[in-house]
Amino acid sequence: MQIVFEKPKALSDTPTHYCPGCTHGIIHRLVAEVLDELDITGETIGIAPVGCAVIHFNYFECDVAQAAHGRAPAVATGLKRVNPDNIVFSYQGDGDLAAIGTNETIHAAARGENITVIFVNNAIYGMTGGQMAPTTLPGQITQTSPYGRDTKTAGFPLRMCELLATLDGTAYAERVAVDSVKNVLKAKKAIKKAFQYQIDGKGFSIVEILSSCPTNWGLEPVKALEWLRQNMIPYYPLGVFKDKEVSR
Amino acid sequence: MAKKTRVTFAADICKGCALCVDACPKKIIRLAPETLNSKGYHPAEIIDQQACTACGFCFLMCPDVCITIEKEVN
């Protein structure tokens, strides 16, 4: 018997604190597998955000720095400029990257910082208990929008990939999902490409990953993935929004 | 004849989310109805090892990476 599927080496043995069915675990595994495949775990520095993934330093075997809320791209900028030979990635949620950290994200992309951003979008604030996020869909019920997000008062969701794709500094922007086996495989490809772009020094790369939050959406894990498929993907279309290599 | 496979679940890490149950194309995974792990969840288990083709779908959807899959080689 030969092992065909097993936990990647870049992932530690610590069981995660995530809720049952939370797709953070899948995304952690994908990032770890990419670190293994590119053989860069030893020279990689991850940036932990504020949010559910705040203690992801317990789960990755690479070095990790923890940033203030939303400031992961700024911390990543500093680390990458001081250590240009290291691989630097930030791992952020939508409350972190698209709310308090929008400014840092946009300017890091505009400066063309040679970093990789893993953006986990689940359309809600998870850690704080399910409040409305900038990425919450119109009509979506959350703790702070109990009658559904009203676009008259709460405005419209941010499509970060589309927004960042307009900037010259962005080398690669792709949106993927982890709702099915097929999309998980596509997500891994995207993450690998983003890291490869950084290794090749091409500039800012971001992979937005549509993720689920069964606990705060109030759905069972399997139903949550269905909800993601039916509601999030139509609003946040999957695909490559910027690829410097192709547009040249 | 189909090649031998072995699927192992780290029962104490499993949170019983059932994403593997849903992903399995052969529908041979279930949440053990009579077992509770140290976390208090019903862990996933395989009910028909011989039907397993080691496709890895359960592994790919497992958020807790608690599945290991082995396959016989020639």
| CATH homologous superfamily designation of chain A | Thiamin diphosphate (ThDP)-binding fold, Pyr/PP domains
| Morphology of chain A | globular
Portion of residues within helices of chain B: 10-25%
N-to-C SSE string of chain B, H for helix and E for strand: EHEEHE
Helix proportion of chain A: 25-40%
How many beta strands in the DSSP annotation of chain A? 8
Here the CATH topology of chain A equals: Rossmann fold
Number of spatially distinct domains of chain B: 1
> Helix segment count of chain B?
2
Strand content of chain A: 15-25%
CATH class of chain A: Alpha Beta
CATH topology (level 3) name of chain B = Alpha-Beta Plaits
Based on the model shown, name its key terms.
heterodimer; A: alpha/beta; Rossmann fold; 7-stranded mixed sheet; 38% helix; B: 74 residues; alpha+beta; two-stranded antiparallel ribbon
Task: Explain the overall architecture.
- The complex is a heterodimer of chains A (248) and B (74).
- Chain A is an alpha/beta fold and 248 residues long.
- Chain A has one domain (24-243): Thiamin diphosphate (ThDP)-binding fold, Pyr/PP domains (Rossmann fold).
- Chain A contains 10 helices and 8 strands.
- In chain A, strands 3-2-4-5-7-6-8 form a 7-stranded mixed sheet, sandwiched between helices.
- In chain A, strand 6, helix 7 (181-199) and strand 7 form a beta-alpha-beta unit.
- The radius of gyration of chain A is 17 Å and the shape is globular.
- Chain B has 74 residues and is α+β, with helices and mostly antiparallel strands.
- Chain B has one domain: Alpha-Beta Plaits.
- Chain B has helices at residues 19-23, 57-61; strands at 5-9, 29-31, 44-46, 67-71.
- In chain B, the strands form 2 sheets. Chain B has a two-stranded antiparallel sheet.
- Chain B has 2 helices and 4 strands; from the N terminus they run E-H-E-E-H-E.
- Strand 1 (2-5) of chain A pairs antiparallel with strand 4 of chain B, so a sheet runs across the interface.
